[in-house]
Amino acid sequence: MNVIEWGALGQVLVAGLIVGAGIPALFALGLRLLAGTTSADAPTTQSTPARGDANDASSRVVAIPRPSPARLAGAIACMGVVVGAIAFGLVFLVSGGH
Amino acid sequence: MDPVTETLLLALVVVTALAFDFTNGFHDTGNAMATSIATRALKPRTAVALSAVLNLVGAFLSLAVAATIAKGIVDAGVITLPVVLAGLVGGIVWNLITWLFGIPSSSSHALVGGMVGAVLAAVGTSGVLWDGVIAKVLVPALIAPVVAIAVAGLGTWLVARLTRGVPQDVTNRGFRWGQIGSASLVSLAHGTNDAQKSMGIILLALIAGGAVPADSGVPFWVILSCALAMAVGTYLGGWRVIRTLGKGLVEIDTRQGMAAETSSAAVILLSSHFGFSLSTTHVATGSVLGSGVGMPGAKVRWSVAGRMFVAWMVTLPAAGLVGALCHWLESSIGGTAGTIAVFVLLIVVSAAIWIASRRKPVDHTNVNEAWDEEKGASLEPVAATTGEAGGERVGPVPAVATASSVAPAVGAVGTVSAPSNPKVGA
After folding, report:
1. What total number of domains does chain A contain?
2. Res. A61: pLDDT tops 70
């Protein structure tokens, strides 16, 4: 008898890394796409050229300007994947797959 | 065995199985909800109520009851009602002891340990499948935290990178919901998995006692009572365990909490999908550790984690010892008196542990107090910042701190001292 089932362990590890780390990352990305244009004083947003919203200069910190359509679409896609994964987890539980 | 004894034994086994179910819910609330409580995404009472409801729902969701106890670990032929009773008592007592010390340890491992001990006392080493013990209990207890630390660590690191520069109130609002959602999934998974174990035990006991036919499904009252016992246990909340998981290992923010709970949910569901069952508790603890490992600048209290790993390794022999002692007591007194003696012993030990816990109660009011690793300095968690955590988030208290040396040492790492040293810190 194998003490460790390496195949199953490897599958759990790889799938776990993809799902378990990927979902929070997508969630964070979605939030960032929605919120990234808030303030001019966030220095690390240099990778976001979509900062040039019309009312960006006037809105300082708290007022969140509408994200550009591309960012909004990206955020919705990210959140959609997250919600889909949760739904899949629920179906898995209900179907007694454990 | 005469019918009266048998009926009494059956009733006691059912009650004890429900009591185990209760301690299971009680002990494992923290797996799902500790991080949400620690980050104040949910109020403590709300969190345990949500978890209780989801455990209740989960118990009804899946009806694929595995009517086996410790399958592949002990010889199924030697499991009798007295053995089951002794094993359950072993599991309950170990659950209560680890709760008293606030150690999250696996309830299923405690049950398996109690069963192994009872079997050893009943028929000797021939009744235990040692390969199964190693492959299904000891090795997974080592592997689960490693996998969970890796997954949660990577997830937390990615989240920290991606949210760098995003205002904290925005991340807090978003991740609070993400955290509640992922924690709910863990609660639901716990309900579907763990309530089934007690249902299986009760079903087996009923079949062995001749109360239901051998091919019977689970009677509705068994499902209902198991679901309720676990939900009540969850609602009462093992605040000591919650405190250790939420505050003791890592000072956690909502982003770490969300990454940790998602990692727990993913690893638990995937491991059962791939047939490599890992303990919910070990995975959840590993995920919390991983959220500290992956967050730049965060501190992990490895001394607390080390105590936990030791407890996990000790769970099987310790619960086994209790189970074996109970079976020995049961069989040396014999008959009805022996069964009652074990049951009374369980009540006495439980009451003693509860009284001991009242000397330093932990409940919903003080569950989030700053962690005090060594008595003397109360640690002040530095408020989490956006992006990378700034500097040391929690100052460790030197293990060798003495009355004279503690003040500079504590001051140097930026903590606030205990009232006995009011000048230091701040």
Report:
1. 1
2. no
